[in-house]
Amino acid sequence: MIPRTPAFALGNFYFWYFAFLGAYAPFWPLYLKSAGMSAAQIGTLLALVPVTRMVGPALWGWLADHRGRRTPIVRLTATMTAVVFLAFFQGTTYAWLFGVMLAMNVFWCGSLPLVEATTMAHLAEHPAGYGRIRAWGSVGFVLVVVAGGYLLDHTSIRALLWLILGLLVVHAMSAYRVPEAPRHAHHDDAHGILQILSRPEVIALLAGCFLMSVCHGPFHAFYSIWLVDHGYSKAQVGFYWALGVIAEIAVFFYWTRLATRFDPRKLLLAAYGIAFVRFVFTGWLPDWPVVVFLGQLAHAATFGVFHGAAVGLTHRFFRGRHQSKGQALYSGIGFGAGGALGQLMAGFLWDHAGGAWTFTAGAVAGLLAFLITWKWLDARRFPQPL
Predict the structure, then answer these.
(1) Where are the domains of the chain?
(2) At what angle do helices 4-34 and 159-175 cross, to 10 degrees?
(3) pTM of the model
(4) How much is the CA Rg of the chain, to the nearest whole Å?
(5) φ, ψ dihedrals at 285, nearest 5°
(6) Is 320 left (phi over 0), alpha (psi -120 to 50) or beta?
(7) What's the CA gap between 121 and 349, in Å, rounded?
(8) Which end of the chain is more exposed for a tag (fewer CB within 10 A), N or C?
């Protein structure tokens, strides 16, 4: 397995990266609403995160592959994310928030795909060990989302700015502990990136990732607002977000067993099917706590199982010198383009069709991902693990 020191340093990075996300993802929409933003404006501002992921990770990944080193770029992007965030203390107009969020996310989108590629390279012949390292990110998310919910129930929403700033500073410090990984040569390394992207199974994988992010768009943009509008407190919102990530942690800790027992195609099909059911019920039965509870448990499949299978397949399809670009494409097409479309769609539909139909529209994207994967992601064409 991966040596103890790199495992600790990588787990530490994931912990603080997702600790920041534990404050940002559930509560930033509430901050934007408190600043006077409309649903359409909130959807547009939140879509800046995935919009930057459409291009940013590919550019950072290309630069890392060109230089032959990933860690200097990880450190630069993490540090500049914290520096740019300071500008949020200076204004709350729509134009100001738009500019600062765009600038911040250009840097923030760069570090994770490079660390994902670094982690997989360190794991080398033991890729199933990814889950145990990545699970520390989920732990960080849970601790912050629970504490943040209680904090914001007893303080002003503006306290969120100080919480996020502190987390970004520590995250930047953790980036300086990430170890550079060796490059593993492979016979597929000679294949060009366009040759890899022309394969039907690669197209199906990336299309499924794109649609899965569209599916989650309403959730990421409006889930916290949806719960608060139906009478849940911020502490309860934090609990339900944490519940989903706790379920995700369980998946990552048992990922080795799942990955060796089921092929990635079956795992992706299960994740897409469960996502469809999850978001239909989230939209139509938000007043039923048991439905909200079970819906968040389903996050184990719709993110944990999905992400583990997708990262593993991406690593198998994009080999050697293409590994950073492969993870950047997964992030850019899936979380980037798909997330942008999903959140822009959610912002438009929320005011025109209501929350229930907005979540249903997202669920339909999950169903489309299921059908594409069923039809075109042929497990017989998968490369063997490195």
Answers:
(1) 4-381
(2) 160
(3) 0.78
(4) 19
(5) -130, 50
(6) left
(7) 42
(8) N
* Cα 144 from Cα 165, distance rounded (Å): 13
Burial of residue 96 (number of CB atoms within 10 Å: 0-12, 13-18, 19+): middle
Tokens of 160: 């969120």
Looking at residue 330, the DSSP 8-state letter turns out to be I
Q: How many CB atoms lie within 10 A of CB 353?
A: 12
Amino acid at site 14: Y
CATH class of this structure's domain 4-381: mainly alpha
> Which residue bears the tokens 């007893």?
154
Q: Which residues contact 115 (CB under 8 A, 6 or more apart)?
A: 10, 13, 14, 17, 70, 74, 178
pLDDT at 187: 46
Q: What is the dihedral of CA 111, 114, 119, 122, to 10 degrees?
A: -130
The amino acid at residue 353 is A
* 29-88 per-position pLDDT tens digit: 999 999 999 999 998 999 898 888 788 877 887 788 777 788 999 999 999 999 999 999
